[in-house]
Design brief:
The chain is an all-alpha fold. It has three helices and no strands.
Length: 61
Amino acid sequence: MTERNRLRRQNGIVAGVCGGLGEFYGIAPFWFRLLFLILMVPGGLPGLVPYMILWLVIPRR
């Protein structure tokens, strides 16, 4: 059987969302952390809400 690349949360800094996204897309989690940080600048909600939704939706590894 071939192993499929599944989206899973990784052990990470807060909830593992950025680590899981980085592994799924094949790039460093740093870029996802930077993206969420930039989205937090205009008041927090544009970065916090998607992060919380992903935290609840993406299963733990």
